[in-house]
Batch of 2 targets.
Target 1
Amino acid sequence: MESEDWVPPPECPVFEPTWEEFKDPLGYIAKIRPIAEKSGICKIRPPVDWQPPFAVEVDNFRFTPRIQRLNELEAQTRVKLNYLDQIAKFWEIQGSSLKIPNVERRILDLYSLSKIVMEEGGYEAICKDRRWARVAQLLNYPTGKNIGSLLRSHYERIIYPYETYQSGANLVQCGARPDYDSEEKDKEYKPHSIPLRQSFQPSKINSYGRRAKRLQQEPEPTEEDIEKNPELKKLQIYGAGPKMMGLGLMAKDKNLRKKDKDCPECPPTLVVKEEPGVDLKRESTSPRCLVDIKEEAALSPQPCTKMTMRLRRAHGNSQMVDSYTCRICARGDEDDKLLLCDGCDDNYHIFCLLPPLPEIPKGIWRCPKCVMAECRRPPEAFGFEQATREYTLQSFGEMADTFKADYFNMPVHMVPTEVVEKEFWRLVNSIEEDVTVEYGADIHSKEFGSGFPVSDNSGRLSPEEEAYASSGWNLNVMPVLEQSVLCHINADISGMKVPWLYVGMVFSAFCWHIEDHWSYSINYLHWGEPKTWYGVPSSAAEHLEEVMKKLTPELFESQPDLLHQLVTLMNPNTLMAHGVPVVRTNQCAGEFVITFPRAYHSGFNQGYNFAEAVNFCTADWLTAGRQCIEHYRRLRRYCVFSHEELICKMAACPERLDLNLAAAVHKEMFIIVQEERRLRKALMDKGITEAEREAFELLPDDERQCDKCKTTCFLSALACYNCAECLVCLYHIDDLCKCPSSKHYLRYRYTLDELPAMLHKLKVRAESFDTWAAKVRTALEMEDGRKRTLEELRTLESEAQERKFPENGLLQQLRSTIGETETCISETLALIGTKKPIQIHSAKLTVNELRAFLEQMISLPCLIQQLSDVKELLEKVEAFQWQAQEALTDEPPSSLQLHELLEKGSQLGVDIPEMDQLQQLLRQAEWLNEVKEALASPEEPVTLQTMQALMEAGCSVAQSPAVEKAMAELQDLLSISQRWEEKAQMCLEARQRHPPATLEAIIKEAESIPVCLPNILVLKETLYKARAWIADVEEIQNGDHYPCLDDLEGLVAVGRDLPVRIEELRQLEVQVLTAHSWREKACKTFLKKNSCYTLLEVLSPCTYAGFESFKRSKRKQKELGLYKSDTESLGLSAQDLRDPGSVILAFKEGEQKEKEGILQLRKSNQHKVCMQAVNPEDQVEVCICGQPPTDLMLQCNLCQDWFHGSCVPCPKLGGQKQSLAWWDWSTKFLCSLCMRSRRPRLETILSLLVALQKLPVRLPEGEALQCLTERAITWQDRARQVLATQEVATLLDKLNELRQRLQSDMTKEMVALKESTWNEQQQKMQVPLENGDKVTENGNGAHSDLDMISSCFPRLCGPVLELSKSAHLQLEELMMEGDLLEVTLDEEQKIWRVLQAAQPPDLDKLRKLIEIEKTERQAMKGKSRDAEKRRKRRCARGQSSPQFKEELEPKRTRAELERREDPEEEEMGQDVAIEHNQNGREL
């Protein structure tokens, strides 16, 4: 059958027991048997939580598997392979090697071809009718390709000679043979070998068997070898025996060509391999003949073979020649062509053979009779070989997984089971592929350990393992369960009572078989890949045997008990095609498979797995077991145990048997006793009267087996006094021995009188149930009219347990009656209150249930003493119901009466329906009282929570007009209160503010509601706060002065938190916002960026100007954010700031303190020596940094302190208008401690004062600004008066004239200098610089503005004015006071120029300023170069080109680009620029 035709059989039944069913294994199997037995096998899935641990010691588990060649397992395939063995042996004896041809790309099935030819009438008939095309069609070859002729050619070459020898036709004279020498036919034939698939072989096994060796490919002789060797060329056609053209002859051993050089080289011959056990007759020769043979062999140059020696010997001995005659023609002439057979020493003429031989063959030759005898020899019995390697579980698993993964070319877990199943049956049916696998089967668990936990009383098992060790589904426990028959066998029968283990790999198979004694079997797959099963029900067992015998009679001829050897498979599809019902299943890990008695089953493994199996027998098996013994007797098969012994052993102790088992044993025992009587009667009829008792159970099985049928005897056997070793059963008394009957005697175990006694005990045991059942039935149905006591019923139950009666309906009814009686007694005791109840019901009994309970007690067939108590209780309950009905009809009900009735009803312990009505009526009265009390107390108003609770409670009480009226009142009052609460909540929410009048109206409305409202207090408090806030605002606004900003901000913050809409709040917010806007504008006007001073400090006099250390510490505190309050600058408290007079007075005092302090500071700083000291300890700390002095030090013109040129902003000489009027140069330097603000012009300050006058708010900064402005105007008036004096006015005019003259001269010189410089620059511009840079205006190629100023230093002269001493002192005092002002005035600059022109120019200071400015410019250039380098690096990394960005942006100065590279530097530069303007302003 082709693999594509494989059709899986239907699935077998699958059962999934519940936990309750799973507790009784044999009971559950008996329950499913009616369904499962119809299929022969079934699968059981245990509950999910049932997962026994794997108990095998993996490290110590070692086993040797069996070797299985798959195509030798299948019966039909094995027949084909045996046929190939026979035909190959035939050609091998003939000196040729069989090579099977290919037809249509598949190996030709020689067996099927031979069988079809025989079925169609034989070779001659098919040739005569030209039906070879039909033969091709029957072999499933396509039509129309002339395949019939090709099949005929192969049949003639390979099969026909073999069939001829098999039939013996060549032993007689026959007609002419067909012409086999056709050149065309030889060209058609192409020999092929059967390919091997041993690349997937799981283990390296050296012994492949005869067939495997034959199928191995051998190298053929080449054409060159044949042409060079004439003998080999002849052997293509001729040889020892009949030859056919194209049989693919080849040398058996090429090593024969390699001989020693000293020895004569013999041509290769075809050597016949003699099979072991073949007794070939050897010719007996005399010593003389042997000497002659040796001499001839030594002298002859021809190949030394046995045949040539015989022929030479025959030629040399005339007497011997006369004695040899041909077996066919019976003549002895032409002795040179007479052949001697090496097997039987018969003689044949080479021309008498069929077909005739052209010449004497060389090598061993056998006659047609010996060839036929050798080919007709039956094949050896087939069986499995044991592997030579021992495996552990790990090594076997690695081998198995590797084999499967390599075979299917995918991971083992991904191969579908359907693919494996289809491939298995393809390999099994294939004669071409020889796949070998290994199977660890029938491994004894006694020796290697079971996969289930086994209890050994050592205490080494955990509680969980103990549970599995004692489980009935444990295969070590199931055979010896109490309901099992095998528990009565003392011996540990391996495989039946003791489990066997199975370690499988893919394709490893177990063949069709039934269990020993046709018993049940159960298989559990512990882990691994699935195991595929096939099953046939017992009803079709004989049909399966008939089909297999019909399809493969050759196998059963040599092995009649083939199916008992577990070595033969047959394709399920083949069996199904012949009417055999087959089912299948895939057994996964953790599942059971059960086979039923006489159910044939087989299967194979899908991959690496571990299974365990055992047999078991139940009561229903006994009949099948007896039939099996009869079957074994017919087959003469040995028994595993004696069936009669098992039955008698159980019959000897019937009290230990289960009732069902006792009944089954009684039935079997009765049949056995009747049969034993018949057999013994036949023995007595034969005249055998001698007998002796024999304890057969004490004898070994091999000493009590019947010599004829091999049955193990127990009840009786026939023996002979003369033949001590002879023993037969009573079925074969005629086959004992040839001794007379008087010498025969009976050996028996029991007498015929003892057997009925045993049978009677079984009957009593089996019928004891009927007696017990009659007693139970009489007691339950009260047939005698008497009720039994509870003790009597319990006695009947105990009797059933002691006698081990099976579960039945009567016993269940008895237990149910006892249970009901106990329940009634328990509930009765609970009702009458004599002891604590054992509650059966979760609630009390109702009246109807009490009546039903009383009726139940009356109907029970058991006497209950508490019956009168229950009746009395029922009477009390009925009396209470009558009283309750009267109370319910009274209007209005009395609470006291209700309480009394409820107390009385609760003591009865019964659920009375009137109790609920009374309780509802009582709750109704109590609720009405609560409502009345809550609403009738005006001093303590009811709360919303109380009303809501009353409303909820009112919904649960029984409805009445009074309840409905109270509910309506509560609902109205609750609705009014909730509406008011909603209004109050809306007023209190900040999202929607309401005026105070609205709050007053809501509060007034709440006073009329008799409920304690939660928000009333909050609303009143909010209204009170709003009125207080309005009063505060009115008080501030109606004061003598404008309110301070701090006061207004506090009021605004409080007003915003109030959930009330106040009109005054918006006005205050506008005033505060305006004040803040003015303060921000003033800060922008006065304060530098990131200034450490506040606006009030800048506008107020510097009262700490006289203390240098204090001054510096103040600055550090400002920088660190440690300064606490602005009011400290004026020495005023927060309350003083609210009084304008106090602020003005404090400002005036501050002016005086500032003036005195600066004079003191100037005096101390004038004595300071600003030089570097030799001794570090004598160093003086200067500047704002507190570091020692350096070369470039500048002295502040106000405080006369010294500062580093790099630490403070310095006056800039570069970039200003070129002039020799050096007194106009920006050389005035004020330190950052003296110049605290931007010093705006007076006009800007006046605009701020105008805006301040419009504010209805007082600010400390505003009053300070007014004082500052008044101080500045006062100083300005004084300065103008001094500048208007004749002396100073004349000097100012003189300075103007001198500046104009110097400016004119300077202009002429600058023009001449520019012309001369221009020519030089043009020449230099023609020559490009090496570095590619252009010469800029400030570059090295031209004079810079600083160089030009430096060149003017020698021409500077002074003083240019003469100022009187009084005028000088007056101007210096004005200059000092003007520098203290944080205001810029033009008069200040005029006084500065007059004072500068009245003294010589300070060249040292000018040089320092030039040097400082050059240093700053150099630093700026360095930063610019660094920025350029960074831009170039960014361009190199792929960023935007800086030139492209510069094209898109407007041109900027170098300083702007540098500041853009460093934002912090840019911010600092802004402030520096401001101070530069203040330190050196040009008018």
Target 2
Amino acid sequence: MPPLPWSLSPHICILSSPDLSEVLENSSLPRLPELLQSFSPLPQVTTRTTSLTSVTHPSFALRFSDLHDVEEAAKEDEDGRAARTLDWISARLNHRAARWVEDLDRLGEQAQNKAPWWDELRKCVNGDFTPGRHETWNHPAAVIYAVSTRAPNPLQAITALQSRQSELPPWVDPSFQRVNLIIHPSDSPLSDDEVTALFNAVKKQFGLESFLLPLDLPSPAPEPVPIPAPVPKLPPPPPDDDSEPLPPAMTPLTPSFPPTSPRQNPPTSPHSLRMIEKDIQATAKFTREFVVMSLIPWMERCVTEWNEAFSSTRRLPSRLFSSTRRLFGSPAPSSPAPISPMSPSRSSTLPPVTGALAGFNAPPPQQRRLAEFATVLGDYKLAITIWETLRKDSKGGSDILPLVLAPSPTIPLHVMNALEALNPAGRTESETPPSAQLRALIYAIRWSTSINLDDFLSPLYEGERWLVWASRNSDEPPAGIMLAHAAHLTLRKKFPRRASLWYATAASRLEKSGIKPLTMYFLRKARSLSIVHPEKSLSPSFWAAEGIKEGSHGGFDAIIPGVEHPLGRLLYNTGDFVGAIKVFLGLLKNSQFKEDLIDGLPENADVVFPGTDKAFVQDFQVAFGHYKSLSDSKNITSELKLGITLSDPKKTRLRLPRDMSQGDPAIWELREEQWKSFWRKLGKKDGLAKSGKAVVDEMFWVDVTFYNPLDTDVKLTNLTLAVEETSGAISSSSSHIHIETVDVITLGARESRTVPFSIKVTCPASLKVTNVKYNFLNLLPIQESLGAQGPRLHDTPAQRQTPTYGPDSFLKVEIAEASHKLIANFVDDRRMVLMNGENKEMRLWLSNMGTKSVGEVWWVHGPDDLVWTGKREEILSDNVCDNVVTSSNSLLQAKAHRISLDKFGDSSVLAPGDSVEIPVTIHVSEVGEQELQLLLVHRQDDSESFHAVRVSRPFEVVPSLHISSTSTISTTPDAHYTLNLAMENVSLSSSLEIIHISSISPTWKSRPVHTLPLGVIEPSQIVSAGLHASPWSGRKGDDDTRHFVHSRLKTVLEGGIVDETKGPPSIDLVYDTNDKADSTSNLRWSWYQHLLQSEKRSTSLKSLAARYPQLVSHLLPFTFPLYHPLAVDFVVSWALPHESRSGHFLISDLLVGAGHGDLQEIIDSSKTFKVTRSMYAETQKEKMEILSAITNSEWNIERNPIVARVCEPRPVGYSFSTPFKALPVDFRIANHSLTHSANYVLSLKAENTPDGSSPSVLAPPYSGRLTFRGTIPPSKAIVVRPKIWVSKPGTYSLGGWTLQTDVIEESGKQIRRRYLEAGPLDDRITVYDIAQ
């Protein structure tokens, strides 16, 4: 067990007579307490426990103090004295901090284990001898009444001291030993016999605890003898204005004794004594005899008697103890404490107190004194028992148990309990009184100095955390010193990150008190520890794979801003402007740490980082501006490095004038690939030339991307580029190169911005863009490289083992003379707002600005762009005859179209300097912001490659009409279906005029039911149009189309390869304008048909891609045709005459007619067909998905083709003069199949149940034939006439009949499908009496 801390040793108070003080003063000696303190501690002192076991103390410490000083200190308010103590310690730390830091810097690595601030703090805490209310360690254990034989009457002097009234507060424990000391100097007027008689008289009158100390005390004083430095003590409080000033307290900063007169020897050093060896031996002998023969026996006797009283109290039964309290009130106090024979009783020394003040002024409990004495004597078994009892009664003890208990996991719990008791529940940390802060400091000092260091730092204790816990409620410098010592101990445990954090926290608290040297020292320590990289046993290839430089990872980046920012401010305040500027610049690089955290977080994570970069930037501006005003800043600008890189070399791009077109770059790449694919299919190899060369005397741009990683705005000024000429044709600084300088840009927090720099070269050259230059915050010149890291090299074994990279790659620009330069722009570039469905004609202007002529021009547009180039009024379609259009029926779209220059100009070649205008018509079919992106490729002749020109035209499309189509079975005998169109004007304010309504179908020919609603439709108005559809007798190509789809889908289901060389067969389309339009109808114009066919292909491909996602998109045109044989499309043309605007809508989502599951055979066979692994069905799941899509497709629709209904039953008048009347009823049965005949069986029931919804409806009494059979050819109908017998007027139900249908195969021998249909119950006929 290590020795107890010095602050827990017995406290001995000394009351000296004036003559003794004079004797010591004349002998150049300090006061008696300081004199005796020089002989403490005593070696090899033996004590006994209550079980009479001897305990040997290698070192037994004593604390001596003047009784007058103790009495005055005890009168001071506890919180006031604690506040003065903390301020006094802070002042001492501030006074010595600079010297400590200087010494440690000088020693370097040799000072790693030195902490002088902790030693100073420990001495200041141990030097506090003032008694406290919460513990009795500082209460006097003995009082020595000391006189000298040079007094006129020594016996009377001792009597006066003994009879002196104590001025200690009533809460100070009066149980202390009284000891008399007579110092007999050699020049005393009393002889030795007289002194012996005096000594015997004192022992007889005041007890045996009396000692005689003979000293020679020669004059002049001998040479000084070094002694241990005395502990510092708190100076007395400053005197009031009305009171007399108090003498200064004895501290290491003041002389250890009053100044001597000029006749005496000069004062000694505060760390020495002027005594001869004989006097030293005599004083040491007295000190040991006092301890061994007087103090320790008295303490042992007290422990024995107090322990008996404590044990007797604990042996009382709990029931008896509770009954005594209940019947007689509180139990009587325990037996009085033993006192020495000459010690006054408590009643004589304490003033009487009553009421609430009695508990406040009462001394601490006797058990506390018993526990402390047992601890001092080494009786730990008894001490632990008493301390545990006090802890359970919430009377303390948790602070001492860690010192006396063996190491165990419960020790940290005792520490936490002791610290929590200082800050009760309900009190905030800001309300912690100074006395509680001081007690926490005292506890921490005791624990750290008394517990073995290995145990203190062990994982079981983690004692460094105790210091952190003790400092949490205080911002005073002592709390910062505790944190610093915790960091010091943590560093010894090899935990640099935790040590860095605690050093930074300690510096933060010391900075508030203005102790700058220690603050800067701790910040530097935290900074050096935070950049230590922890060892990570990972493969070197891991860092290369992650793109991280080995050695640049793993620092404690999160704490660096909190360390370096206050350090930079302190450097600035102390005049180190250069150091402060470097620190502030270095702080900016830590913003990358936050960027890495943000990149690693989920997108929806709500994380906010404190905005500290603004303070860093502002401090840098102030520091650099101040330094610049005092001296020439050019001396340090070369040394300063910006911690962050604002430019991104990987995103640096060259932008030529021909690349200035708007639009998505990915779409332009798609256009180029589209052209290359088209040209390769033509068997040509001369593709699109990739020319990244700039042109002489033409401005081009280098786009540099800047990203601000800070959370504050950054201002950059004088931005420009640095280039090198690599061909040697001209100098890099030649006047032939003109580079733009951007005056200023401001990057917002986390903002990324692309800044273009224009460059113009007046002669051919080769340039390499090397750097970007700017002034950071308009103060610091910065030059950043625009070279991207080269590729990883793997050529040699050494390069594969050690990451080796090629040279950095820079942006290079070739400037050449202009040869192929075609300028393309739309004539009208104003904002264009179109209505949905509008046909807009624009003018495209082409100008040859190169040195070579242009003989061939092609234009490429997107699959969704509906564009026609040419004059639309003069070209008649060559495939329109008698309202019949022959369609290729192919979904393939032309990827490129050639522009015939001779149709728009005087020549087929565009010579240098010539220009031409080309009309371009676009049709829009979707609402919203859109952009037309056309790629023009051109060349002079077949001997050259093509060059590309991009032209785009943004526009907005607003709603106009919303049109929907439906079909129902016709009720008239001259038509199969009735088609309905619903048109709504959804525009905001435009009144649209419907010009004509046309239908296009391979199968159905239509006519209006009534007059079509042609004319003006106002906004929000809805109009409807009805058309009768009948089969077209001149249809051609519909059967071939069905067979084509059948064969291709069979190939798909069987895992075969679709033939891409042959598309679907052509098909004839019949169109009906359904108005009085003549041969000038728009459908006769090629441009109109081109737009309709293009729109049809675009919508069909989108629909097929969504319906068959498992099929490869480029094979859809070779699997499906453009038109379904049952499809009916509508074209609705509209106009705004007063605005000269027109357009049309294509409605193409209607299928009319009955199907017979044409694909069912191949679907059934594919379920049992064993296919190999192919591109269509790599897994069984994909095969089932394809099979399900084909089963539910429009090519496999199945519907009952036979429809039966009563032919418009009307009320029938009849004279019921005859009892019964046979009334015929017409049933029309129609076959709506276009390909198959059908057998029918119509069954009627004579006793039919009437309609249950109306009791007045009568059942029809059928008579005669009730079953009708027959066969109906495709697209034909028949009428059957059963009869009913009517006996009275009324309404008769005609429902309840059943119709059985058998669809016959085309061969006429097999039944393909069979259907059974029940007639509707709401078919009725009304018969009335004519006579009535």
